[in-house]
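Our consortium's second objective concerns turning raw sequence data into structural hypotheses that experimental partners can test. To show how far this objective has progressed, the report includes one record in full. It was chosen at random from the queue rather than selected for favorable results. The single chain below, 138 residues long, was entered without modification.
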Amino acid sequence: MVHPLHIADARNAIRHVFIRDFVLHCSIGVHRHEHVRPQRVRINLDLAVVDEGDIGDELGNVVCYERIADGVRAIVGGRHVKLVETLAEDIARLVLRDGRVRSARVRVEKLDVFADAASVGVEIERFAAGPLAATTTQ
């Protein structure tokens, strides 16, 4: 079950940028057979972003989900990772580099582990350092 999207928070001037059901092949796992063949992972991101008002319909004024997707692809394709937790933390660190991102919720699921389960995985939420970090509520 996937949780519903968070609602943009007008009181704290927060908007949410998200990527849903991003399926990639990843070299991940602790077992020997997992080192041989990449596995399908599904990644969901929900970023709480400072809403700076009028964006002027300009891409440079927003957090670009294409850049985020490219960064996630680079992380997933970069090296073998043992744990879904490690992959989620790496992705959270990536997206929190943008100073406008106040928090990141990252879900990583391995899709083909058990025949009788749709997925297994982890979901984390990480906050940026700074004065607005504590005011972001979900």
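The partners drew two points from this record. The radius of gyration is 16 Å. The longest strand covers residues 14-26. Both points have been shared with the crystallography group to help prioritize constructs.
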